Amino acid sequence: MARATQRPPTVPLPTTQPLALAGPKPKAHQFSIKSFSSPTQCSHCTSLMVGLIRQGYACEVCSFACHVSCKESAPQVCPIPPEQSKRPLGVDVQRGIGTAYKGYVKVPKPTGVKKGWQRAYAVVCDCKLFLYDLPEGKSTQPGVVASQVLDLRDEEFSVSSVLASDVIHASRRDIPCIFRVTASLLGTPSKTSSLLILTENENEKRKWVGILEGLQSILHKNRLRNQVVHVPQEAYDSTLPLIKAVLSAAVVDGDRIVVGLEEGLYVIEVTRDVIVRVADYKKVYQIELAPKDKVAVLLCGRNHHVHLCPWSAFDGAESNVDIKLPETKGCQLIATATLNKSSSTFLFAAVKRLVLCYEVQRTRPFHRKVNEIVAPGTVQWMAALKDKLCVGYPSGFSLLSPQGDGQALTLVNPNDPSLTFLSQQSFDALCAVELKSEEYLLCFSHMGLYVDPQGRRSRMQELMWPAAPVACSCSPSHVTVYSEYGVDVFDVRTMEWVQTIGLRRIRPLSSDGTLNLLNCEPPRLIYFRSKFAGTALNVPDTCDNSKKQMLRTRSKRRFVFKVPEEERLQQRREMLRDPELRSKMISNPTNFNHVAHMGPGDGMQVLMDLPLVSSRGRDLPACGFATV
Predict the structure, then answer these.
(1) What is the pLDDT of residues 532-543, one digit of tens each?
(2) CA distances from 37 to 40, 50, 103, 141, 146 (A)
(3) Could you give the domains of the chain?
């Protein structure tokens, strides 16, 4: 018979009595989502809790606050032990996460250094330099809306001291306390922007410069580079008079864009410098194209009607065909799409809550009404997602069936208690993205949140905006948010804030954000070339000091944008007088083939005949000006 295994003598376990005598039993945090009114650091990772509202968790008992993503890994004991509560500022060099430095500085007033300086709160955090305006007066608490964000991972980012010649309007005693940060602005033509920062004293300036330079060096060493999604390029010459009045735009093909103005609709052939006046529409607010059906859909006029314009008009063809949809009076938004269940192109026109659905056709009258749908609220955004129409309205999104063969599905489930805050306050709908993971990203004016197909929250973490959005565009992979200081791009899958473009006062002219208007002096037409989708427009070389003018041709609707002949002759005379400019008149080789190396004594018989080139082809136009 097998013997039972003999157990070792039992040793009494330590009792919990000594712990009980040491003090009260530790408690867990009483966390709740909180909206902070000023920039607040996460008590766990030290990074800023960026956002306009609901930035993170805060314990109702102690002062511990953290990101939603940091909650599980943060110390769970309340209150936090003293040795854990006082974490020094620092950056995780492998991921670039954390706050490196913060303090009060001064930046030039919007009108420039000559008008003086204004106070700001600056934070170097998560590979970025954040600036927050401080209100005038004694208050030292900035708001949560960032006035400027610069990315240290930007290839053009640099920091340096300044000379007196760099800041001619600054006080002489301030110059040793001023440094300059520079970041990229445009990809083509290459442009950068600079920001001057005034510190309290020279020692403080050295700290800021040293920390920014040191952090930039660490980022380069660890290859924490900026992920470029959009490459901003100037789409056309800013001296074109039409640009300052542009309200909307769309890319027709690789060489043409159509722009809607206060007065008229025009096509710009960017590679040929030809301008075509398509039609005399008033106030063209939105342009959507149906290239397969050769129809352009316009939202225009004093009464916001939808008009259908034949594609042939883009070529300058005289056409009296203008199809106006009378029932669309007061329309605030249009969209075109090809649904999964149909090969036809659909047009959707939103008039307050009513969505009118049409099938676009190639022949007159270019449309056939299919259905009318009533949305749960006034439509603020809409787009087709697979075979459904997704509409956004205050505090909600829904999936509707354009052909009336299905039930509406709300993407904000009223039975989810974590989403009840949406019904307590009105949040404007910006856009929605359908992810491959059976999720939807719903972007509102104050945050973005993720839900499943039943409208229940799928992620606790929300997408936070660093500044108040003024517009938004989206693709299947990224959301692009426009604010007063520029453009921020977010990866919809990872929720990572991947790019910042510092183009102040830029607004999208197209629903996809491909074409934009930069409200500077002079206004510029900006094309966002996608690193992922490829090039949609062949951007020409542009020149800031162009002497081009819109000149009429024999056609009433066709113009050329070029330097007048008298001006060209004057420029050539100036070039001939100046040896440096004269060298620019020599063109590069054309139709050149290397046949053999010719040394001393070699005869002319080995040269090959090359086809003649017309004199026009050999003439090099004036600097940056295209020949028409």
Answers:
(1) 887 889 998 887
(2) 8, 11, 18, 9, 12
(3) 27-88 (3.30.60.20), 99-221 (2.30.29.30), 230-360+367-530 (2.130.10.10), 547-589 (no CATH)
